[in-house]
Write a structure and sequence with these properties.
This protein is mostly beta strands. It has no helices and twelve strands.
Length: 123
């Protein structure tokens, strides 16, 4: 389950990395903005429970917008995707990293498209 996943069917680049050291980080990049959050995970049942960094009571999680949550439970689906569940959401994340292609028309602020790209340990 460790590795990098992306949130499909969104306009912006959204990647989540689950690291072997017990931490996670997600990042969003929309060419004209960016954001990120990190925290820790523990094994729970057949998945992982994501929680805030030490000393914090909640953390930001990306969905249609960015919301504060206390925990997110993630597990692997039969088709290899990552299922993320919080109190008010359920998401499927696809394996691999996605990158935004910026540029295009001067009036276009968001990405022109998204492409698979190399996993980077700095995520």
């Amino acid at each position: 389950m460790l590795g990098t996943y992306h949130l499909p069917c969104v306009v912006d680049e959204v990647n989540l990395t689950l690291r072997a050291n017990g931490t996670f980080r997600w990042k969003i990049f929309g060419c004209d903005f960016f954001g990120e959050e990190s925290g820790q995970w523990i094994v729970e049942g057949q998945g992982l429970r994501l929680s805030p960094r030490a000393g914090h009571s909640d953390f930001f999680w990306v969905e249609d917008s960015v919301e504060r949550v206390k925990t997110v439970f993630v597990s692997r689906t039969d088709d290899g995707e990552l299922l993320a569940v919080a109190s008010h959401l359920e998401q499927k994340w696809t394996p691999g990293r996605i990158c935004a292609q910026c540029g295009g028309d001067p009036g276009q602020l968001g990405p022109m498209g998204l492409v698979r790209c190399e996993d980077q340990s700095g995520l």
